[in-house]
């Protein structure tokens, strides 16, 4: 373990020796938990089956690959992370892990995860994992994030691939059903992130990251959240008419989309004085709801798959 004591302007300097927890934090474990869960859902709802050991190993590879992409994101973004309050105590800006170590860890784990997934399952799943890491690190982090307020709309595709990877690990292909799961996350990402940006705007402003809240203001961001949430609700409802979804999905989709649209309308109606006065309560609640939204939709798809296998429900 290395003791890094470089001086980093703005970062919260911490010269204690780096421990396992610091290297683990580089993998963005909290965010990746939902990424891994959606990959797991893709694997479960795919037709056919994988030996439980191989299935577990495939999910482990996706988790390692996702974590590695988080480390590469932190390697490249250490200058931004040093400026933003939310990210200042991450291992690199805090001075506990060097950029070189994060780069080395990210590249090694990426290669390991892709090769192992290939050996354990197939080239399509491994290729998708490699492409996802590339998309998050190169397309989103290195290019779009600092270039355009559409950064997360396009870059969000990276976070939408994991269920496709899980599906491909079982079937070895990319089909309409796996693309539908991709689309659900792809359309969910903008409301998920922009609600957070509403109460984290000062950070992005300070770091000069062109998030929509910075370039077009919070009013425009609230309008965008509403439009994307309505589009998402339409798409989520239409997914009921596909063989992937059953009655559990329908119930979850109706409840969660009603709540999500209601939340988006609440955010749309609020002005900044009101939001500041109550500490962005509604925005924070909407962000939390966004996490439950994805978790429950994918959970419902898995429950329906189990019910189908008992002959209950059956594809619509
Ligand atoms: C480009 C797309 C995305 C952007 C820009 C984005 C941005 C963010 C940010 C800035 C946070 C706060 C992170 C922190 O804790 O420091 C966050 C939290 C989170 N995101 Fe996303 N996100 C994206 C896509 C996703 C995807 C695809 C998933 C999973 C399917 C996801 C799951 C989560 C979770 C679970 C948290 C909460 C972590 C916690 O408990 O602190 N995000 N997101
Ligand atoms: C399997 C695999 C490779 C999965 C990757 C999934 C993926 C791309 C998730 C995106 C999640 C995320 C935290 C984006 C944050 O944006 P940011 O990096 O701008 O956030 P930050 O400010 O917290 O660093």
Automatic annotation (TrEMBL):
Functional pathway: Porphyrin-containing compound metabolism; heme O biosynthesis; heme O from protoheme: step 1/1
Pfam families: UbiA
Gene Ontology MF annotations: protoheme IX farnesyltransferase activity
Alphabetized InterPro entries for the sequence: Protohaem_IX_farnesylTrfase (IPR006369), UbiA_prenyltransferase (IPR000537), UbiA_prenylTrfase_CS (IPR030470), UbiA_sf (IPR044878)
EC numbers, comma separated: 2.5.1.141
GO annotation, biological process: heme O biosynthetic process
Matching PROSITE patterns: UBIA (PS00943)
Domain of life: Bacteria
Gene Ontology cellular component terms for the protein in this record: plasma membrane
Reactions mediated catalytically: heme b + (2E,6E)-farnesyl diphosphate + H2O = Fe(II)-heme o + diphosphate
Enzyme class: transferase
Protein's membrane topology: Multi-pass membrane protein
Locations listed in the record: Cell membrane
Keywords, comma-separated and alphabetical: Cell membrane, Heme biosynthesis, Membrane, Transferase, Transmembrane, Transmembrane helix
Protein family: Belongs to the UbiA prenyltransferase family. Protoheme IX farnesyltransferase subfamily.
Listed name of the protein: Protoheme IX farnesyltransferase
